[in-house]
Design a protein that fits this description.
Number of strands: 8
Helix content: 40-55%
Order of helices and strands: HHHHHEEEEEEEEHHHHHHH
Structural class: alpha+beta
Number of helices: 12
Shape: globular
Bound molecules: flavin-adenine dinucleotide
Largest sheet: 4 strands, mixed
CATH class of the largest domain: Mainly Alpha
């Protein structure tokens, strides 16, 4: 794999349009064919290849845009971040192998971490030398996170941690876990929650991979058995854990992977090109039902783009997204799940004699379809987002009498 390093990054004063053109030119000339999910030569990149690619993107100014220069970032605004994301979305690129570090752990370390923690973690995350996982969910605490039981007890000047997490994405490759624990009892609910940055090689941590429907083992159960960490592993003050967790969830819902609508549009074009390339499939594009569904989808994608632009506008004015992140999460996950269902039904005729593009699309959309089942679950299920919208945006009562 050959990618350009040490590229000159445009002057921020030039504005987001110049930055966007820089991102487009760099990505188009450097993205290797085997990483293009629409290319017949596509193959799954190894972790080392993905890391090298993302490290090169960072050096080209395409990651860490909004992080301060003192922590390895480019010191730019959310507008440049969005400009780059539009170009990342427009190409059929693999997902980041470090989005938990770059998009969740990084911002929360910046918000509640000590200066020492920021210096130690942030540049390493951007340089792709450090992976993170998010240890929030437990077997009895998912949608209702306040029921989590993993216990952190002060033992002299150290913390002793016992408990279990589940569905921890990327746990096997992670160097650190953004771990949510409680210091009191479950009855304390939101009080007494405490967040940590725990090195995954600490004695007492056991990672047991879980195989998902797509055959991958990217998430795991993580067991903590008398895990001892120093007080310097604490992220934020005791009792600040719930607020920090809510901030993580709001980032996850509102701004994480901002490129999604542009990527969905790219996938829609990929689907239509694959159908057109194959004599057996191209006939299905004459169907008026398919025309209506494609029209609906493009409207939904445009609506989603508008929601992302609105989010960036509001955040650029200093507003926090809070509960409104649920609108974006609900919209993109439902839209993508329906889209991948349509894609798979259009590609259902693909066989060994179909065109190479059609075969590649069938493989890519089968994976996307299976993963889309999870999209309405992780970062809060559809039912939870609907409740948040009803109760916290529209102020409806919590429970009907
Ligand atoms: C691909 C994937 C990756 C994940 N990665 C991570 C990770 O890295 N770290 C991490 O901590 N977690 C992760 N999760 C876990 C995820 O956050 C939880 O699965 C999610 O919060 C739902 O919790 P649960 O699975 O316990 O389901 P439950 O909360 O038990 O929900 C079960 C069902 O009940 C419904 N329900 C629950 N409460 C209500 C309510 N109040 N009103 C109406 N309906 C309700 C839900 O909508 C759902 O349909 C991941 C999940 C997936 C699928």
């Amino acid at each position: 794999m050959h990618v350009e390093h040490h590229v000159s990054v445009p002057d921020p004063a030039a504005g987001p349009d110049v930055y966007r053109r820089h991102a487009r030119a760099w990505l188009q000339s450097n993205l290797p064919d085997f990483m293009r999910t629409d290319h017949p030569d596509w193959r799954e990149a190894t972790l080392a290849e993905s890391s090298a690619w993302e490290a090169a993107m960072y050096q080209a100014g395409l990651a860490g845009m909004t992080w301060p220069k003192s922590y390895g970032g480019h010191g730019l605004s959310l507008r440049e971040h969005l400009a780059v994301n539009k170009e990342i979305g427009a190409l059929p690129m693999p997902e980041s192998v470090s989005s938990i570090g770059k998009e969740l752990a990084g911002p929360i370390i910046m918000a509640v971490g000590t200066e020492e923690q920021r210096q130690a973690f942030l540049p390493e995350i951007l340089a792709m030398r450090q992976f993170w996982c998010q240890g929030f969910s437990e077997p009895d605490a998912g949608s209702d996170l306040a029921r989590l039981r993993t216990k952190a007890a002060l033992d002299g000047d150290q913390w002793r941690i016992n408990g279990q997490k589940i569905w921890t994405s990327g746990a096997a490759k992670a160097h650190y876990c953004l771990l949510l624990t409680r210091t009191g009892t479950v009855a304390d609910k939101h009080r007494g929650l405490l967040m940590f940055a725990i090195p995954m090689d600490t004695p007492g941590i056991r990672v047991v991979p879980i195989k998902s429907i797509d055959g991958k083992t990217s998430f795991a159960e993580v067991f903590f058995d008398d895990v001892i960490v120093p007080d310097s592993a604490r992220l934020g003050a005791p009792d600040e854990g719930w607020n920090a967790a809510i901030r993580v969830l709001s980032i996850e819902r509102a701004t994480n992977r901002m490129y999604r609508p542009w990527r969905f549009e790219c996938e829609l074009r990929q689907l239509l090109a694959a159908c057109k390339s194959d004599p057996q499939l191209s006939g299905s594009l004459d169907d008026s039902y398919v025309h209506r569904r494609v029209g609906d989808l493009l409207c939904e994608i445009d609506g989603l783009k508008g929601l992302v632009e609105l989010t960036v506008d509001r955040m650029s004015r200093g507003e926090t997204m809070g509960a409104r992140g649920s609108l974006t999460k609900l919209y993109w996950s439902e839209c993508h799940q329906a889209f991948t269902g349509l894609a798979l039904s259009l590609l259902s005729q693909v066989g060994p004699h179909s065109s190479a593009l059609a075969q590649r699309a069938h493989q890519a959309f089968t994976t996307a379809y299976l993963f889309a089942r999870a999209e309405t679950i992780y970062a809060g299920t559809t039912e939870v987002q609907l409740d948040v919208i009803a109760q916290r945006i529209m102020n409806l009562p919590k429970e009907l009498a």
